[in-house]
Design goal:
This is GTP-binding protein LepA C-terminal domain-containing protein. Keywords: GTP-binding, Hydrolase, Nucleotide-binding. Belongs to the TRAFAC class translation factor GTPase superfamily. Classic translation factor GTPase family. LepA subfamily. InterPro entries: EF-4, LepA_CTD. The protein is α+β, with helices and mostly antiparallel strands. Helices cover about 45% and strands about 15% of the residues. The chain is built from three helices and two strands; from the N terminus they run αββαα. A hairpin with a 2-residue loop joins β1 and β2. α1 crosses α3. It is elongated and about 60 Å long.
Amino acid sequence: MDDPVDALSFMVPEERAHQLGKKICQRLKDNIPQHLFVVSIQAKVGGKVIAAEKIGSTGKNVTAKCYGGDYTRKKKLLDRQKEGKKRMREVGRVTVRKDTFISVFKDD
C-alpha cells in the first residue's frame, strides 16, 4: 500500500539523512511484530529511498495435515494459501503503536 506515516516525518541535514534513516528503519523493524504478510519499511528523501528494511511474514504450515499420497492436494493447499496472502497484502494494514514511536526516538 505504501502509506507514509506522517508522525515519522522530520527534517534532518542532508549529510545525516542516510545514517539516521538506516537507524530508524532498524529500530522499527525490531519493534513492529511480524504479520501474515511481508512489511516493508523505507526511509525516503524526496522520492528517493535511502534506507529500507523488511519484516518477514510468519509462516503457517498448511501442509502439516497431509501425509504422503497424492501431491495434488498439497499443491492445492499451497496455491490457496498463496491467493490468500496476495489478497491480505492488498487489504492488510499495519498499525504502529504509540510505544513503538517512543522507542524509536529514545536515545541510547
